[in-house]
Amino acid sequence: MQRILLVDDHVLFRKGVAALLAKREDMEVVGEAGDGLEAVAAAREIHPDVILMDIGMPKCNGLDATRRIKREMPHVKIVILTVSDDDNNLFEAIKSGAQGYLLKDLEPYQLYDLLESISRGEAPLSGAIAAKILKEFSQPKHSTAQESDIVGDLTAREFSILQLVTEGKTNKEIASILFISENTVKIHLRNILEKLHLQNRIQAAVYAVRQGLVEESS
């Protein structure tokens, strides 16, 4: 059961999403908030598994709220759900620790699928959004000595998994390609994030492409 906190300043939109999620037996809306400050307070009290976070809100926007919540509760998964496809908002959200970035024009079944992917440790992104991220960071930068040492700690298997993550493969697909279990994939991903000092697989993909650690996929 995914315990979900809805954060949006439009009450009608919140109620609509809550009604959609109420149809699922594996998802439960445990709270709602109308701005970023309410979101931070609700997250502290409720400790949800997932937060669906809007960006443009009064008092405290979704990006600031994401940063505050991730600092206090790094285990809480935050997915931006917004009308904004602005590049700056997208990149700031990912840098702030958001696990995903969705636009509000998606179909209900897509929302269900993407929330399910979060429970599997995957990153909910539309193809267009993912393409924007990799395009922005596609130019490798010069690694510092410290970064080179960190990268050198990755095993051959971890490099293989990092390549597949960059290609947008799911945990199930990675497991099938490498003939290992999904649980083993999750363990490797956790180790990769710890070694690279990153928060989620989106940041790992961006880092890998920017550092030239993997071959950029088409």
Explain this structure.
By secondary structure, this protein is α/β, with parallel strands linked by helices. The chain has 11 helices and 5 strands. Helix 4 links the parallel strand 4 (77-82) and strand 5 (100-103). The chain is globular and about 50 Å long.
Low-confidence stretches: 140-149
Determine the fraction of residues in helical runs and give it as a percent range: 40-55%
Structural class: alpha/beta
User: How would you describe the shape?
Assistant: globular
Count helical runs: 11
**Assembly type of the shown chains?**
single chain
The portion of residues forming beta strands comes to 5-15%
Q: Strand count, sense and closure of the main sheet? A: 5 strands, parallel
Count of strand segments: 5
Ends distance: 36 Å
- Report mean pLDDT, rounded to a whole number: 83
Q: Spatial order of the strands in the main sheet?
A: 2-1-3-4-5
Query: Over all CA atoms, what is the radius of gyration?
Result: 17 Å
What is the element string, with H for helices and E for strands? Answer: EHEHEHEHEHHHHHHH
